[in-house]
Amino acid sequence: MKKIFIISGVMLGVTVLAWGIYMIAFRVPAPASDSSTSTKDSTKISNESSDTQNKIQASSESAAIQIVTNEGVMGLYVGDGNDGPLKYYTTGDGDVYQISLDGTNLQSLANNSLTGLASVNWSPRGNKAITSFKRDGVETFYVYDFDSKQGNKMKDGVDTISWSNLGDKIIYKYFDATTKQRSVNVAEPDGKNWQKLADTPYRNLKISQIPQSSQVAFWNKPSANEETDLELASIVGAGATRVMAGKFGADYLWSPNGEFMLVSSVEQGGKKLMLGVASKDGKNYQSLGIPTLASKCAWTKNSEKVYCAWPSIDEGVVMPDDYQDGKMATRDTFWKVNVLTGEKKRVMELKELESINQTFDASNLVVSPKEDVLFFINRTDQKLYRIELDRS
Q1: pLDDT (tens digit, 9 = 90+) per residue, 61-74?
Q2: Using CA atoms, how far apart are residues 140 and 172, in angstroms rounded to an integer?
Q3: What are 233-242's contacts with CB under 8 Å, separation 24+?
């Protein structure tokens, strides 16, 4: 018996040593090109899928809000199909997964250690992703193609990056360290064949191409004590035109048809948060009567309604600065708003929400194609949640 025990122990030690050598020799390092190609062990995926589904089923079928993931996630993408899929990165190690919209069929798309992952921006088709990493106070950007399993690091001087409507180009702000000039540019995803669209004086910029349009919108990062200048430039480049100014701390979110934009803003100094809607040229602004941020909303596919998280904000908070800087969290309720009529309705009654005994600070809101589920990331725990929109 003793001899068997010794032999078993030796065999176990050899196995562990061999496994350690294998992991050191073949493990994919933290990306120099955000590459991530290996697949997780099928047993682990099965267990995680089962855990996720059990977590959902643990809630009552009539529960107002259900948890989808047991770990923190970053960046959401929902496909146009009835089953999605929904794709996301994990905050812990940067693994990439996709699941069906009902929370089943968990699959691993990539399995790498992405240390310092700061943000994820999916392409319109969900086959590419722009990721940023913060290491030692320096932010770097990568573009990864899941089809070709190739990635590349963007050149120094590039910070804000967004996708073109077709996902075949990137639109970015570039700072030339020699000339000290800042500009908005368009290029291939690998950075080649770049072209300047317009100059900008702003260091911190937000960029978005307007859906169903050749126009690229860009504006200075929202701040309570700074007027926001919203400018438009053609994707082929011809200078920029200012279409909206005079609002403080403004942020924008375009409808899928490109005809409307949500506009959130504050009174100078960060008080009285307001959400309104305007036409794509900045005209015909109307208040929607909800004090929330454009980043806490999601359009429906038909561009007629938005689902928004309505935050409860403590006294003395400076919006949107304190929220953007992560200095505070909100306590949200959820609403559906018809932007054509101004009609608004609670997604769930307040009593129903309070019965959950948990607060939600919703971000990255996404409405499913059939408008039957609202997904969001709760900033307080970084986990993914879903709200059944038709629970009657």
Answers
A1: 446 799 999 999 99
A2: 13
A3: 233/184, 233/197, 233/198, 234/197, 235/164, 235/169, 235/171, 235/186, 235/197, 235/209, 236/195, 237/186, 237/195, 237/196, 237/197, 237/198, 239/198, 240/184, 240/197, 240/198, 240/199, 240/200
d(CA 361, CA 363) in angstroms, rounded, equals 7
**Contacts of 280 by beta carbon, 8 Å cutoff, 6+ apart:** 210, 213, 215, 254, 258, 259, 260, 261
Give the tens place of pLDDT for each residue, 94-128. 999 999 998 889 999 998 788 889 999 999 999 99
- Walk across the sheet containing 373-378 and list its strands: 65-67, 384-388, 373-378, 362-367
d(CA 260, CA 32): 39
Residues paired with residue 66 on neighbouring β-strands, in sequence order: 386
What pTM does this model have? Answer: 0.84
- 113-145 burial: b if 16+ Cβ within 10 Å, else e: ebeebeebbbbbebebbbbbbeeeeeebbbbbb
Question: What is the C-alpha separation between 144 and 133, in angstroms, rounded?
Answer: 13
Residue for token pair 């609670």: 346
